[in-house]
Here is the input.
Amino acid sequence: MRRRDSQKKTERDGSKVLHGFVSMRRILDAGRPKLNAAKGTTSVTRAHESDDRPIIAKGCRGAAVPAATGTTTLRTTTLENISGAISVFAAVVDAGTFAAAADVLGMSPPGVSRAIARLEKRLDIRLFNRTTRSISLTEGGRRFYEQVVPHLAGLEEAAIAASGNASAVRGRLRVNLDPVCYRAILGADLDRFMDAYSELEIELIARDSLGDLVAEGFDAAMRFGKPRSSMLVARKLLDTAVVTVAAPAYLSRWGRPLRPEDLEGSAHRCLEFRDPETGKPYPWEFHRKRKHVVVATNGRLTVNDPGALLNACLAGSGIAQMLLLGAEPLIAEGRLVNLFPDWPDERFPLYVYYPSRHYTPAKTRAFIDFIVAWAAGH
Here is the structure.
């Protein structure tokens, strides 16, 4: 009896999170006439989710209820059960733990655990690696997540469209940002975007790398550099130059280098920036048309954060190479000096990434439109 009550509770919990499917079912069912059982016959009851056999229910007089009615009910119930379990699965991936997903969904942690166990049994694969302290997606779980998330989004979009709110921009938008972009887009432009969509919450996460956008629950990302092979959509926003800069205070103390080769050795204090992928400082390169020069600097200070590099340079601690996108306002204000404007041709592209062209939520589309317009002004 306790087990049956527990199963019923899990089914009730799962029904709370049939995001797109249930919404769409309610919309479609609103204009559909109710089916009543004929007098003297029994109605077809809810079928067990694992039973895919056609149902024929007999009345007290032996009259058979058409099998199509029972089959339709069975298919609807089965689909709702699967959709509910998938929604729980997606919530666990996004939240990172069963307990956090339960809190988001308004379920109990055991209810979430049972929903995942039933889904794993139905799919005949293990979706999560579980330890006492953490969970992580298995390879099969990651593939399943990447395949089903666009369909969940599609169901939600279809439900919104059917209810007349297809263009509604709301909810939480999570964006993975290159740290340089993090500073560049904050300000009046972002404020205007948020003012335009008062029901939208934005979470900007500064990261050194793109990572697994889908598995980590990001809606979009902005990264510098050429895109690698990926299932993500990559849209180029702009190219920005690499500039070599110093603060006036540094130049007044150490003098201004006249050519890139003047930076070799210990002649100047060069601030090194560590490449997060190689663990080594970026090489100092200079490009002018077809000419390419690499200078072996000997910096004593190495950092791995663009903000720290900028602050050290502004303080007069040394010469730095950085992206013009971040340095341009400071050069215009006279706080930094572009040392080699005649070497302008080392450039980095900036891309925006998102999971799918076909099932892009309205909030993501709105953000991409905003970023494209922002990039056009730089």
User: Anything to note?
Assistant: Confidence is low (pLDDT under 50) at residues 1-76. The two ends are 66 Å apart (CA to CA). Residues 175 and 368 are 11 Å apart (CA to CA).
